[in-house]
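[job 4417] fold queue: 2 targets
>>> target A
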Amino acid sequence: MPVKDYYQAIRFINESLPQGSKVLFIGEPRRYYCEKKVLTSSELDTEVICRLVKKSKDINQLIQRLKGLKITHILYNKHGLIWLNKQFNCLHWENKAQKSCYEAFICSLFPVYVSDDVYIFQIP
């Protein structure tokens, strides 16, 4: 993600999301300047979302797990995730069902913010 897209997304989070919001970063390890609570992985870790999908039998259970962690929003950096996965293989799917669950979950979300391939989704 170009640097300006990161700063614009963080500005939106800081200025537009309610107090008490907690944001899961997917494909984005940089948490600096974010004034909300953040859950993210380093570039050398498996993505948090990957671990959650593996523990979930379907999208509904995945959403419940996110809510259990008090996640209210997701910052999704599509290009960042592609790059991180190429460099560090951060999405370790054990089978096609897990990958399909993840892809269906991402596609089911409605963005509250979009800048190029950076999205902020609200958890339903």
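>>> target B
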Amino acid sequence: MIDVRHLCKTYQLGNVEVPALVNVSFSFDPGEFVAIMGPSGSGKSTLMNLLGCLDLPTSGIYRLENYDIQNLSANELAEVRNRRIGFVFQNFNLLPRATAQENIELPLLYGRVPNAAQKAKEALAKVGLSERGKHKPAELSGGERQRVAIARSIVNNPAIILADEPTGNLDSKTGEEIMNIFTQLNAEGVLIVLVTHEAEIAQYARRTLNMKDGELVHDSFVAEALR
């Protein structure tokens, strides 16, 4: 599903070139659950931006399903992001003046998908928030806001969910509830790729990529998740 070969990303800061990713190669199959770990500055966020088609590599090859990502136009990249990838962020990224249901409908409206309201209600139900659709983010707990963000990420039935520190702003009990939702989505065949600093969160995954100084230094598998 995802095939990355010799991926490099270099930023130009004045006259200085700063390598953020260096010769990174791996592939992900459908239905994997992968954790990406590493210290700050290791390249995790850069890698996630590239996998999410939010940025393009300086060199190397990124294939997502049948797409050569580096060869797509801006409009084609936007279409891939909207249709094939769901995003979940540490800070939820919800519109404060929109209700939970309206936030979930946004990807459908961008893609001009019919029956947006009904699909949003179904996504809310899937994350256990059927009764909270009319509430705005300020009226929801942190865990509920992250559930809304997950519902938004799955409303288009993506093949891939990219989650960047999805439990970083949550207490341990709420974080466990959120990870159980990801585990269920993964059991349904969705490829889950998450960035985390927390070893106990990485234990939900069956594969861990460790990054350091922009390089992939370790790629390990376990027979089954520990959590």
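[job 4417] complete. Note on B: The first helix runs from residue 44 to 51.
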